[in-house]
Each structure stands twice: as C-alpha cells, then as structure tokens.
Amino acid sequence: MRLAFILLFVLLETLFALPFHLIKKETDTQNTPTLLVIGGIHGNEPGSYFAAALLAQYYTIKKGNLWIVPNLNHLSIQQNSRGINGDMNRKFAQIDLNDPDLESVRSIQEIITSPQVGLILNLHDGHGFYRKEYQNTIFNPNAWGQTCVIDQGNLNTDHPYGNLNEIAAKVSMELNGDLIENHHFFDVRNTNTRFDDEAMKHSLTYYAVTHNKPAFAIETSKNLPQLHDKVFYQLRAIECYMKLMGIEYERTFAFNPETINILLKDYGYLTINNNTYLRLENLKNSLSLIPLQSDQNDFQFSHPLGSVRQNKSNIDLYIGNEKICSVIPSYHPKGNCSDSISLLIDGKDRNITFATDFFVTADFKIINNDSNTRINIIGFTKEGVKDESNLRVELKDFDPKYSIDTSKKSFRVEFYQQSRFCGMVLVHFK
Predict the structure, then answer these.
(1) For residues 115-150, b (16+ Cβ closer than 10 Å) or e, as one string?
(2) Global pTM?
(3) Short-list 133, 224, 222, CA closest to 184
(4) In the prediction, which pLDDT does 417 show?
(5) Which residue positions in the chain have pLDDT lower than 50?
C-alpha cells in the first residue's frame, strides 16, 4: 500500500508538474465529494505537515475520496520558516506575478476549486491556547492554538457542508472527548473575515469560502510539548471530518500519541537515479563519496516529506524540517552493467537488483562472472584485489568508519564498468 501511494504522487507530479505533492486516495470519483487536506502552508508548523504525511502513509480509504497535499510550502518547510518568500497564507486574494510562491498558490487554487472537492482542511500550529476570556499571555482570545477556525458562520449558498459554525462546533466537541491534558480543549474561532479581519481576506480558507467551498483550519497549539501531541490532535480532527463526510477508512496503527511518536521516526528510504538506495533510519549525519551524475539526479523518497537541498559541495537530505544527512557526492558517468545481481548469503543463493538491500547473519559473497564489471565493497579491502566479487565477507572484515548507519552494520556495495557507475546495493548485518 505504501509503495502504491508513493508511485501515485510521483506520477501526478510528473504529469502535472506540481510544485508540491498531491496524493489521491479515491474509491468513487463520480458520486461522492472529496476531502482535501493541506499541510505545510507555513514551514514552521510541523504538526500540520507531519500529520498530513502520516495520513498519506498509514490510512487506506475504503469509501469516499481523500486528497492530501502534505508539503504546500516545501522550501519553507526545509528551513523551518513561516515563509521564506513571505506569508503564503496572505497571497490568495492577490499575488504579484513575480512572487516565487506564484506557482504554488495558483496550483492549489485550481485544486481547491475543482468540482470534485467538497470540503477543505488547512492544517496549522498556532500560538497559545484560545480562550474567549483573557487569562494570561498563553490563554487568551488572541491565541490560535487548539481551535477549529472558520471565516464565517455559513456559506451564502445552499451546500451540504455549508453550516461552518455547526460543523466546527461538532468537531470541537468530539475532540474534547479525548484530550491528553484537560487544558488542551478545542473551541471554535470565527474570524468573521469579511467584516473584521482584513488580513484573513487573503487566506487560503477565505479564498475557498468565496468560491462556495466549505473550508476550515485546524490549529493545534505550538505550546504543546511534543510533536506527536500535535499530530495526534490533527489526525483526530481529520478523522472527525472524514466521518462527517461519510468517508470510511482504515489505519494501520494503534491510535495514541506513543505510537504516533514511533511512526514519526520512520523516515523510510531513498532511491537515487533508480540505481542507488539508502535506508534513512539511523543514517549518519554525513556520507562521503556517494556516486551521482554530474547533473539531473533523480531523488525519490518513500516519505511524503522527503526532499533535497543543493549546497556548494554537498546535498542535504530532509524529512520535513529535519535535515537527516549531508551527502558529499562523487560524480561518475553512468555505466551499463546487468542489474541482476547474484549473491550467496549465509550459504544460500539469492538474486536481487540495484537500489535494494539484503540482510546477513554471518557472511555474503557477490557472484560475478563478467570481467567488465568491478565490485567495490565500501569499507572492505583485501591486499592485491581490485575487484571484490567472489570473496566471502564478514562484518569483522569491514572498517566501521565506512558504514552508512550509526550502528555501524550497514555498508555499500557498488558496481562499476571501469570509472562508470552502474549501481549500488546495501548490505545490513543483523
């Protein structure tokens, strides 16, 4: 299932050249409306985009339709910034044609106004805890945290989800039935945008409302102590809206903050140019001499928030706002080896292909009968040997400083035709 949605959002971006991911989980596009969930309009609100990512990874839709944009403002997410080009959520009424955010804003506007979309959720983390009466600088009417935000009480036209105040109140009540701490309770915040809030007239949700689309913002508090607390409430709110719309779903995890915390640490894997593979779990902070092409490298993450950032001498790998590794490349032209790899693992024959991995208990051997292909087992050396195929290799034979992981048990096996790089696999010792 996870591979299926990964392929789907890669395909959608390829076909439509979107500047963000759009993940579609659909069962009936003709007769039922679609819930559109948007995360990451502000890059310093990780509860929003990590909740959208878990929604994409671990939920299966059994009835109805769900569209997810987990990383609307992906460059700002990398830099943990509200908006590196200014506040994107203030550009929906009017945007300069030279604004760097123009493509993202125009693209999401087109998705919002799609006839199939029946309700929009814009996910945020907001300051403090909203209270109708002032208590202190954290609990007060100007706070945004722990709110279901609406721009007005009702849509001006007949719509099955047009009573925004009633829906937001119902969702808040359901959320308050299962709180981590009592002071985390939710309330409805109506900005009354048309008459009382000039800035909000430029927001995503008000743009939707003015196009007769029910839109709500879910604001979890930035003052919640842990990311998984924010994601827990975001997902509970999303489930409330799915229930409201008759969207039936299954999730593959026990729904509690502790389990969510574990899922948030699963960064998945990365393939590069369809011939290089990295597991991102326990990855070292820096990896040297990773074979890449001099231009047009294709990075494909299994995680919806995976992204890269090119620097002068290295490429940084991100999951959301977390930089997990800096890759120092070694540039090679592309080789043309066979991608069918024969192995002897713990005495048993096995065949794999490039950009995969395998696990070993005792030892392994790369079987190679092609004199034009050279195998380089990174971290392993044997005097006088240039091609390291057809050799029995154990963990004790490796120099641990060449491992890719902090446990020092995972190593690269690279395939070359002279100086041309063909591909790589990973070996993990149990």
Answers:
(1) eebbbbbbbbbbbbbbbeeeeeeebbeebbbbbbbb
(2) 0.92
(3) 224
(4) 93
(5) 1-15
